[in-house]
Design a protein that fits this description.
With 541 residues, the protein is an alpha/beta fold. The protein has 13 helices and 29 strands. The longest helix has 21 residues. The protein is globular, with a radius of gyration of 24 Å.
């Protein structure tokens, strides 16, 4: 299965071209660092591009103050990783290991230079992306989660970080590593905690706080007017972000959970064009996000829109969950759908502590070596079953209907039926959940044999139903009787993606009549930009 980036350990090192270095010099300031002087600290913004002329810069272990790796960055190399594109923060400190001279370019100037010189941009992004992959694989980060297996809030953060490709270290309660990390913060390594840097404990941690620490929670200037606001960061929204940036439109994409949408929860997508060995939804959408950022599109998460109104000057005003506003000339609704919450007692109590709505590596780790149940008969449920059966003791797939044929791709259903670690239960529904601080058992009823059983369960994965995310829309945006957005001929518009309100468009799964597939969502998000471009240019003051 393909990953989102190259393997840094086998990448051939290539220095920047002389012409690229000359272009950097024109906008750079030369700076010197003495041996042992820190170049960046944990939490510093990636506000400048650093190119090394002489000497070297090494990664530093926050706890031992020793070099983190045996090798270091030297002349012709540059500092940073993918967070530079969005102005994120450093999660590992760096210092000069000898007298060092560098060229430093303000981030905005460097992004402008990369936009003008595509070859330079490609080179830098390839290296940054590979470094992010290494950080994830080696857990190179000063973001430390202690006791995610025991604390449901920390599980949510681990899941958010995993889906967002945020590197972090996960330590078990009471482990020697946890004790070392805890001691530097005057806390016990046997207590669940989230630590950033050497000694900063994040109280009452949430994904939003993590996003703010790392620069993902974009602070929007209320005076800035975007050409297009894309609400929803799934395949349709990210594709719209790519094409909006490529067409020179100023765009921002926001999502209330993490970039990737429902597709981001898919552990392996094998029927998407161009990936014959498959790719995870999170990796696929990460590639799209990087591509969009390259063209200047901004992203913000986890942020949600509370309300949408139109100003008398024609601009749209989207009120965000922190009561700030985003102003835009046009809106793309790409909020997709969400799995339905089952009408079960104690469901909310166990959400994040045994009940999950995604089956990524993070969730798979939490229920390893235990029996798990997946509810659903669609592709997402099938992909989850094939993924989880590698680490779970056994996977039970509960399907309400009598077959998989109407809702699952043939290649996937054939694999499930042939997999000994997966049992498919037709006409089966969950009736009750049991446990203390986490889910322990599940009672279900099988309609085929009219039996009711209770089994031990380390994880219940709910992947059924498709409730559209449209509650935030104003009343004049027309919906069908199921809550999906009406577009095109249904609201007497000329194009397939126009809603009942001029300037507001809908794409992807949230649109009534859409085909619920990743490829079709990407297509709609790409095509709608031609209509946005025409609308924006026809209505500019």
């Amino acid at each position: 299965m393909e990953s989102f980036a190259q393997d840094l350990t086998i990448m051939k090192r290539k220095p920047l071209r002389d012409s690229h270095v000359a272009a950097i010099r024109e906008v750079a300031t030369e700076r010197e660092y003495q041996k042992g002087e820190f170049v960046v600290q944990v939490g510093d913004r990636m506000d400048r591009f650093i190119y090394i002329l002489e000497g070297g810069i090494e990664l530093v272990d926050s706890y031992t103050n020793e070099a983190y790796l045996p090798h270091f960055l030297g002349p012709t190399q540059f500092v940073g990783e993918m967070a530079f594109l969005y102005g994120g923060t450093y999660t590992v400190p760096m210092r000069a290991n000898a007298y060092t001279r560098v060229l430093e370019v303000p981030r905005k100037d460097m992004l402008d230079l990369m936009a003008r010189i595509p070859e330079l941009s490609d080179h830098i992004i390839d290296v940054y992306n590979a470094r992010r992959r290494r950080q994830l694989e080696e857990s190179d980060s000063s973001l430390i989660i202690i006791g995610a297996d025991e604390d449901k809030n920390l599980r949510k953060i681990a899941a958010f970080a995993s889906r967002s490709h945020i590197p972090f270290r996960s330590l078990e309660l009471g482990s020697p590593e946890a004790k070392i990390a805890g001691a530097s913060c005057d806390i016990c390594g046997g207590v669940p905690a989230l630590i950033f840097g050497r000694d900063r404990v994040i109280e009452q941690p949430t994904p939003r706080k993590v996003a703010k620490l790392l620069g993902l929670d974009l602070q929007v200037d209320n005076q800035n007017v975007f050409d297009v606001l894309v609400v929803g960061g799934g395949p349709a929204g990210v594709a719209a972000g790519v094409y909006a940036g490529a067409e020179g439109l100023s765009a921002i994409v926001i999502d209330e959970l993490a970039i990737g949408g429902q597709a981001g929860t898919s552990s392996r997508i094998e029927n998407y064009l161009g990936f014959p060995t498959g790719i995870s939804g999170a990796d696929l959408l990460w590639r799209g996000e990087v591509q969009a950022m390259k063209f200047g599109t901004q992203f913000a998460m986890p942020r949600s829109v509370k309300s949408l109104n139109r100003h008398e000057d024609g601009y749209f005003i989207a009120q965000i969950d922190d009561d700030s506003n985003i102003c835009a000339r046009s809106i793309i609704i790409a909020t997709g759908v969400q799995y339905r919450r089952l009408p079960l007692e104690r469901l909310s109590e166990f959400e994040g502590a045994g009940v999950y709505y995604a089956a990524t590596e993070a969730e798979a780790k939490f229920c390893a070596d235990s029996e798990v149940i997946i509810i659903g008969g669609g592709n997402s449920a099938g992909q989850a079953a094939m993924h989880l059966c590698r680490t779970a003791k056994h996977v039970h797939l509960f399907v309400r209907g009598k077959s998989l044929a109407t809702s699952m791709s043939e290649y996937l259903s054939s694999r499930l039926k042939a997999e000994p670690a997966v049992t498919i239960h037709f006409q089966t529904q969950v009736k009750a959940l049991h446990g203390d601080d986490a889910l322990r058992e599940v009672t279900f009823h099988n309609g085929e044999n009219e039996e009711t059983k209770t089994i031990c369960c380390g994880g219940l994965f709910v992947m059924v139903g498709a409730a559209p995310n449209t509650s935030w829309l104003p009343d004049n945006v027309q919906l069908d009787d199921k809550g999906f957005v009406l577009t095109g001929a249904a609201v007497e518009k000329n194009t397939s993606f126009e809603t009942s309100v001029d300037g507001i468009y809908a794409v992807g799964d949230v649109r009534a009549g859409s085909v619920k597939r990743v490829a079709s969502a990407v297509g709609e998000g790409s095509v709608v930009i031609s209509h946005i471009w025409q609308y924006v240019n026809n209505n500019k003051p």
